[in-house]
């Protein structure tokens, strides 16, 4: 059982922080400060969103390297999306997922020379297929698997693969706001001549080729998404990082041409730097492979072998329950964690009028057979009466990410609910 | 003891292949065919080097994904630079380098939040510093360590870090021919607005900012290199992938501002996808870190932990010889392997007038105290009377890489001598 004390304690702090009278007064007295951490200097505070957003995206600025406040004590870091919530479950699994790698393994660049993605470890491919079949969240038949150093690298690989190589101008890349805050940065940081960030998909009206990123469930607001541009010359990339049953009902297997997944959000192993793409078109899969060859000559085989083991144990925990204790089926455990955290957060927010959270309609999950409303990894918090929600919360030592980074206004902020880690269970 | 039979057998084939009378006649009768493998379609055969090289670099073409001929039997693949020569040594080391990773490790994105490169595992950093101190091949004091998914990623990180962000045109990137064949491809594949390949450093005469890649020992010709442009507005990147004592005498610790190393070429673990940079300037190190965050949000921690273990065992094999059998000191063993292979190759080449190999002067290695001539991982073979050396050898089922890819003429070809793997020793 999760030790609630630590996480509930965090929400008590939030609840105190949400005491409108005390804190709003302090804020208006200008006591807030702003600091940058493991993110790019944005340099803008209470200014016009559009112009500052463009400046933020276009300008490549030094990375601040001050230690995050979480290392300094007394601060809640809900910004970074570090999925440390999962650590306790994997500790409790003990040796089931331990991997032993001898020194003579993985000398070669090559994993399987017969495969299109020749640096994809077959064990990892098999584990992916098994897990998708079990969960029912994606079609794998007739798809090429391309492995990447996180779905971050795969996103870039897709852009490379589907951009026309000889076009007179870069192809536009769009996503409906609020969009994942890293998309503009990743798209534009090298000022590629092949592709260029073109902002909010809902405002894209040009009769030109485009690439639309459809993130579903969406980061940051957890909404189930579909394409919005719907013109003839578009190619869609479906980022399904959160389409797992701890976050959202699995209504049907996703069946798109290009689908991205990541270990970080499924099992929590963000440090592994591993993602995979399911790709229908062979030429696109080949070009994605080409990108990864040019970028990093493949992907860590150690990460792949370890992920293979972990994904198999996830599947085993559901398919071979006799080998696991009660409550250890991975997606059940993770669902329960997220459910508790969302309840605590909603309870805290309901105590005042200062904030709102999204409401999600209930749906039936074909995997768990449970009817529930989405409980995303990020909470998309809206401040009703505060112009800059992120600064307001920062003043009260709660680190979040401003809605500006997601193409929305500054009165939104995201809270990452899959961290921090719950305390270890009492032994 | 290396089983010579297999590798000597390869050189017997080469020796036969080098029988000038028989083979030159066959080649001139037009029986040769050309095929592409794990490399980009180059489409050009016996044509003007300059124009076709530019076309090759500028045009992004689909990656051929046919299995390399090595998988088809009866063919010697000396193209790919796959360092499988090292596998037998690591098998013989047995459990010394076995790494055990529990399932709860590496959940977090963060390795050390106090470090500039916050995804660098401290164990790996310590192992790097220890090894450089032992071998004496690089100064580490006062340097920031940046870890990357191979030196390939670090090369791109450096380009990003040192390119002016707001220049009116991309900064020129040059290297003296023959240069590493991947440099032009990696520099230009995204058509970045920040940097652009500008070819042979010896021909660079513009009075503008530039970046010069100095690879030493050089790939492909094994020569010890220094900068050649020597203008005021240049920044140097030193690629020291092969500056290890199995390949070349260690004359002094390299002491440059930006130095790149890779596990692939030091211990042979190419599948690990791991490299490191030693960087003097903090701002450059920060921006390199920023690149890797945007590109892949860090580097596989599994690879780092494994590399830490392996590098420590390499150092132990020299510093704690009592724990190892005779002949197991890693760099001694690897030096002997390379020495044998170069002797076999030179013996084969000397039997005819069709080919030449570079000569290297002897130098004293401060690490091994041995005087020897360089024995690079790649042999830079010149065909005296054949215009297209790579096609000629390919006809005789020896896969090499044409000199054209290195900015030289087609009568050169590279042979990778750190593969294939020697057969296991008789038990």
Automatic annotation (TrEMBL), chains A, B:
- Alliinase C-terminal domain mapped to chain residues: 76-417
Q: Which GO terms describe its biological process?
A: amino acid metabolic process
Cofactor dependency: pyridoxal 5'-phosphate
The record's section on Pfam families has: Alliinase_C
One GO MF annotation is: transaminase activity
Similarity field: Belongs to the alliinase family.
Q: What PANTHER family does its record include? A: BIFUNCTIONAL ASPARTATE AMINOTRANSFERASE AND GLUTAMATE/ASPARTATE-PREPHENATE AMINOTRANSFERASE-RELATED (PTHR43795), TRYPTOPHAN AMINOTRANSFERASE-RELATED PROTEIN 2 (PTHR43795:SF22)
By what name is this protein known? Tryptophan aminotransferase-related protein 2
Specify the domain of life of the species encoding this protein. Answer: Eukaryota
Residue ranges annotated as transmembrane are none
* Record key words, sorted: Aminotransferase, Pyridoxal phosphate, Transferase
Matches recorded under InterPro entries: Alliinase_C, Alliinase_N_sf, Ethylene_sulfur-biosynth, PyrdxlP-dep_Trfase, PyrdxlP-dep_Trfase_major, PyrdxlP-dep_Trfase_small
């Amino acid at each position: 059982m999760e030790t609630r004390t630590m996480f509930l304690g965090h929400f008590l702090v939030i609840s105190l922080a949400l005491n409108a009278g005390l804190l709003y007064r302090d804020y208006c007295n200008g006591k807030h400060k702003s600091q940058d951490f493991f993110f790019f200097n944005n340099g803008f505070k209470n200014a016009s969103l559009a112009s500052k957003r463009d400046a933020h995206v276009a300008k490549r600025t030094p990375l601040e390297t001050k230690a995050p406040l979480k290392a300094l004590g007394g601060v809640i870091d809900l910004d970074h999306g570090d999925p440390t919530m999962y650590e306790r479950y994997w500790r409790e699994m003990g040796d089931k997922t331990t991997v032993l790698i001898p020194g003579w393994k993985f000398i070669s660049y090559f994993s399987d020379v017969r495969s299109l993605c020749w640096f994809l470890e077959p064990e990892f491919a098999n584990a992916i297929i098994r897990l998708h079949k079990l969960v029912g969240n994606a079609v794998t038949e007739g798809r090429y698997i391309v492995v990447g150093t996180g779905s971050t690298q795969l996103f870039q690989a897709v852009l490379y693969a589907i951009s026309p190589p000889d076009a007179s101008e870069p192809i536009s890349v769009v996503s409906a706001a609020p969009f994942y805050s890293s998309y503009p940065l990743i798209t534009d940081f090298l000022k590629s001549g092949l592709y260029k960030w073109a902002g909010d998909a809902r405002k894209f009206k040009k009769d030109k080729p485009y690439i639309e990123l459809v993130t579903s469930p969406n980061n940051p607001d957890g909404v189930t998404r579909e394409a919005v541009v719907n013109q003839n010359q578009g190619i869609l990339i479906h980022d399904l990082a959160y389409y797992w049953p701890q976050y959202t009902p699995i209504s049907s297997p996703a069946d798109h041409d290009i689908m991205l997944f990541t270990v970080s959000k499924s099992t929590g192993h963000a440090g592994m730097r591993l993602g995979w793409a399911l790709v229908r078109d062979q030429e696109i899969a080949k070009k994605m492979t080409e990108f990864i060859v040019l970028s990093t000559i493949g992907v860590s085989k150690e990460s792949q072998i370890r992920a293979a083991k972990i994904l198999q144990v996830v599947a085993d925990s559901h398919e071979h329950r006799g080998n696991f204790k009660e409550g250890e089926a991975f997606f059940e455990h993770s669902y329960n964690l997220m459910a508790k955290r969302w309840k605590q957060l909603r309870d805290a927010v309901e105590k005042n009028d200062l904030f709102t959270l999204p409401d999600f309609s209930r749906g039936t999950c074909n995997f768990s057979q449970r009817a529930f409303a989405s409980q995303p990894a990020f909470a998309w918090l809206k401040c009703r009466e505060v112009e800059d929600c992120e600064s307001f919360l920062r003043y009260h030592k709660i680190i979040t990410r401003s809605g500006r980074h997601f193409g929305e206004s500054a009165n939104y902020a995201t809270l990452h609910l899959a961290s921090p880690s719950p305390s270890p269970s009492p032994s």
